[in-house]
Fold:
Amino acid sequence: MQMYRTSIVNAAIPMPIGPAESAVIRRGAGVNWAGGSALGGGRSGGAKTLPRSSLGRHFRECGIAVLLLAVVAGCDSRSADPTTADSVAGGRQASFSRIALWDDGLAELCYYDAVDEIYGVPRKYTRIMLANREWLNPVQMVKAESPDLAGSGSLPVFKTNIIEEIPTENYNYRFMVTIFLGRPELRLEKFAASSQEWCGTTFKRLVRRHDALRIDAFSYFENEADRNWSLAPSSNVYPREALFLLAREVASTGDSMDLQVLPRLRSSHASEPQLSSCILACESAPRIISVPIGDVRVKKVTLSNAGGGWIASYDVEAASPFRIVAHEHVDGLHLSLRYSERRAYWDRTRQSRFYERGNAP
Structure:
């Protein structure tokens, strides 16, 4: 059976993981694989260890699932692009945007221990970042449900959602961000962000048109209200939230990126879009860091301003699929990876291994 090797030290698991073979673990706990480090809660406490019989059955069934997946992928014309192979000419590893994993029909879900500031106070919560391959209808700028790839002009994209619910003293702040980046070139095509709390709702949308990047904002605050702007349709303009995907590409290729970065659009306020010249670059030497999911070999990707000043760092898994393992930003945001899974989150029959049914974070 072919094994997909993660960069979690001493852990090798078949990917993608199928339906859970054991009882659903409580939020924040993990499943220990016999003899190896934990995937999803190495130091979280209370982790459930699978018995050897269940472990063997899990590996056998996952092997069958991987084999069936390979057959299905081979019959799917949408995954026929040879540039999506896990390795390319010369034997070097494929970049993040081209790995074949994205054509498996599943989504990557990563759960983070997060700290961010609201009202000047650090708040602890769980952040979810999910990513999967989709197609974008370039006329309506929405997901193409049944793309005719031969003639419709549908754009292959990465869709990334960032979901957050942050508690404060009297009510919770709820944020959701959706990003569409073209695959494999990672050009920004669309961005949407919403904020809800008990005082009101704010919504922002950025859409690429042939002549401009158009931004619309709808805020409940006085003197903000409904506003719109246009930016030059440059290919290196990105909202800050999209840099999580770009950092994965930089870590996988080693090539730096010169960017024009918008400030955080995930916010209850709407403000004038101010572009900042930034550089996203990767340190050459990998290292091992400890996070709730375990000890992980990573490459550090750094975001700096034009003068070289530090803005943020992204610790990216050193091997495919180059997940974000940890992150910190000058404004106080901190992320540490607690758990990761691949599943069809839209399929209500497929239960998460991270949270109990009906209790999503």
Observations:
- The chain has two domains: 4-75, 77-343.
- Confidence is low (pLDDT under 50) at residues 1-85, 87-91.
- The radius of gyration is 20 Å.
- The chain is about 10% helix and 40% strand.
